[in-house]
């Protein structure tokens, strides 16, 4: 089931580049990741998608507060949760908290998942089709 982007706001949730331990990620640093995220966000906006980007700290309590601020008063039909929140065992509690908060704020929301900032648009397009003009 796909929704039309003209009637949908997408919440894109990921770890803030300052929240990562780069010693565990060979070949990646904060500056590079920041640039990749910015390029991914530009691609979403260039595709005409209505996206709210929400970059979270690693602390679950603080992340919940930030997430609630990003999602305040906005109905989301699709939530994209980035790989950084899902694939690292040290972020399991954070990922669990984020999913449960989103479920409470937007019951019935559809989820999609990327594997990198470069695959975010593809992940969203699995659920959101561009509005026919």
| Helix and strand sequence | EEHEHEHHEHE
Structural class: alpha/beta
* Count of β-strands: 6
What would the CATH topology be?
Answer: Rossmann fold
Could you say how many structural domains there are in total?
1
Mean pLDDT: 89
- Number of helices, where a helix is a run of at least 4 consecutive DSSP H or I residues: 5
Biggest sheet statistics: 4 strands, parallel
What is the multimeric organization of the chains shown?
Answer: single chain
**Shape type:** globular
Low-pLDDT ranges: none
Helicity, in percent?
25-40%
Question: CA-to-CA gap between the ends?
Answer: 20 Å
Can you give me a brief rundown of this structure?
The protein has helices spanning 30-46, 60-71, 83-86, 92-105, 120-125; strands at residues 3-4, 9-15, 50-56, 78-81, 110-113, 128-129. With 133 residues, it is of the alpha/beta class. The strands form two sheets. Strands 3-2-4-5 form a four-stranded parallel beta sheet, sandwiched between helices. A two-stranded parallel sheet has the order 1-6.
């Amino acid at each position: 089931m796909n929704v039309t982007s003209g009637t949908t706001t997408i919440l894109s949730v990921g770890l803030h580049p300052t929240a990562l331990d780069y010693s565990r990620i060979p070949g990646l640093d904060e500056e590079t990741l920041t640039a990749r995220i910015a390029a991914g966000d530009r691609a979403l906006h260039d595709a005409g998608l209505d996206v709210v980007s929400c970059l979270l700290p690693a602390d679950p309590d603080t992340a919940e507060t930030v997430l609630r601020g990003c999602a305040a008063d906005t109905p989301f039909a699709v939530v994209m949760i980035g790989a950084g929140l899902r694939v690292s065992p040290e972020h399991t509690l954070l990922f669990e908290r984020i999913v449960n908060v989103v479920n409470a704020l937007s019951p019935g929301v559809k989820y999609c998942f990327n594997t990198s900032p470069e695959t975010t648009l593809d992940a969203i397009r699995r659920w959101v089709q561009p509005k026919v003009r």
